[in-house]
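Worked problem 6 (solution included).
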Amino acid sequence: QVQLVESGGGLVQAGGSLRLSCAASGRTFRSYAMGWFRQAPGKEREFVAAINWSGANTYYADSVKGRFTISRENAKNTVYLQMNSLKPEDTAVYYCATPRNPYAQGLMVEDPYEYWGQGTQVTVSS
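Solution. The predicted structure is:
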């Protein structure tokens, strides 16, 4: 059973930083891509960032490019999302996710993702 547990959310002022973590268990972490999505109140869930199985390729939504960095530490079965220069519009519940299939591609949409964490709240005050 694949499990994903996010942590690191909280309340931060605009311009501040947070680092989200997502710990995975239940299968061989290093063979699978990881992604971060977010959902703001009243809005649909949207893609934020993804990293492929090897860590060699990363993908970002235009809205976070240059401010957020996704990384993975396979020895700890953990993926991170470093968020800098936060804005009030970054306020959302952030979810990590991982695909059903190893070496999955097309990571900027929800379709390949099978397993999701419970989410962690990020609130950015102005």
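Discussion: The chain has no helices and eleven strands.
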